[in-house]
Amino acid sequence: MYGNILPTDIALAAPNTDPVKLAEFDARIARGEKIEPGDWMPDEYRKQLIRMISQHAHSEVVGMLPEGAWITRAPNLRQKLVLLAKVQDEGGHGQYLYHAAETLGATREEMVEDLLTGKAKYASVFNYPTLTWADIGMIGWLVDGAAIKNQTMLAHCSYGPYSRAMVRICAEESFHNKQGKEMVYRYALGTPKQKAMAQDALNRWWWPTLMMFGPHDADSPNTPQLVRWGIKTKSNDELRQEFVDETAPELHAVGLAVPDPELCYDEAAGHWKFGEINWDEFWRVVKGDGPCNKERLATRRKAHDDGRWVREALAAYAARSS
Ligand code: FAQ
What we know:
Elements (H helix, E strand, L loop, with lengths): L18 H12 L12 H20 L1 H5 L8 H26 L5 H9 L17 H21 L5 H29 L3 H20 L11 H6 L7 H18 L10 E3 L4 E3 L5 H8 L6 H14 L1 H14 L1
Antiparallel strand pairs: 1-2
Bound molecules: Phenylacetyl coenzyme A.
């Protein structure tokens, strides 16, 4: 997994298990210091970050596809421009994140290979189809909203390059989220046909969005270690609950019904209670058997093949110039 662009002072040949260094590292985390690329870090910290950041990068890049499918069918020029800018932003987020993972020693080629061969994971939500134009607004509201919840937390994470990438990404995702809300408000408060489109989009995107936060804490093997090292500062369930608490009343306010008969406000707890997620469906999608998994990977593979000549030309140019 580690490539050939390691900062020179990172020695990966021997396992990083020195107890003194480990204690110093833990103390730095406890003091809230940022860990930077050339700093000593345990192998497992590096491995967890490469896993998470590369999955995150893949999610941004695959996340371009469901919405990208609507660029040519946008209802007017303004909407087309807004959508084009948004999809382009997601591609940029993928670039920042691949760079952040490269600072840990992962190579771009290995990460992309892992995505294209189906070895690497990416966010399950992007394996669902965008069936109507209202899906574009609903993705901005729900999917970007959930991503911001998670990424605002990650902006405080202990690894410097990841946390700094998150600050910029969150600013851009907030814009996407507002654009999505604006669209859904218009449809929800528009003609009966528009309202029905918004409701249908909500019915299809609500549960996949809740799944984005990952399995319940009790079934999340990575959380304890990520929390210990200040990579995650909130758990999957905590973030999911915060999202439901904020989003359910906003959806109700525009007259949309959340597709969950168990959803209700619990006065005593001060939270919205919600029904159980279909975890069988979640794991099926994560393991590659969702509605669009095959299509998404086939599209990425084709893009990769089509871009081969550009990579080869750049490599030849670099070789000639050096
Ligand atoms: N989908 O132990 P945990 C976006 C996997 S960006 C697929 O709880 P962890 C922008 C997990 O990897 C959205 N797989 O894992 C946008 C692990 O497998 P592994 C992406 C999932 O890391 C918006 C296993 O299950 N955001 O939306 C999912 O502690 C609009 C056990 O799970 C990020 O990637 C899932 N939903 O917590 C673009 C943020 N959930 O690797 C276009 C960074 C879990 O051990 C349009 N990542 N798994 O084999 C994270 O915050 C965390 O990695 C979690 C998972 C919260 C995703």
